[in-house]
Amino acid sequence: MECLQTMWFSRKQGPAGQPPTTKQRGDAAEDAALQHLQRQGLSLVQRNFKTPGRGGGEVDLIMREPDGTLVFVEVRQRASASRGGAGSSITAQKQRRIVLAARHFLRRLGSEPPCRFDVVLIQGVLGTVEAPSIDWLRAAFDASATY
Asked: How many beta carbons lie within 10 A of that of residue 33, not counting itself?
């Protein structure tokens, strides 16, 4: 974790030590989630897949399990558990947009491998002395529940 904290401070701060922007914090959370999932044996297929046009969806990480299952991952980071924490920000509308993006991605493949929708929740502030908690929720939601 110390390596991750050093990376956070060296790559994710704004100019002249200014606090990181929201985008930089989001990128750091995705980096942490990606490293966590790779340590669990998943491989990266694509990062930040977006559907074309306005009103579409985005998938933070698309990963593959060793058995071939395609995993669409939403990453959420919150500094504290107040107001429900990281998990509470994944609304039904957000799930629909993720499913929309996943379906768009699968159409490009031409075949549909086994798939699931996971969530990685990061609670705490990356780069601080106290390491944040990382919770990986497998099959956090499914496509049929969002429509």
From this structure: 25
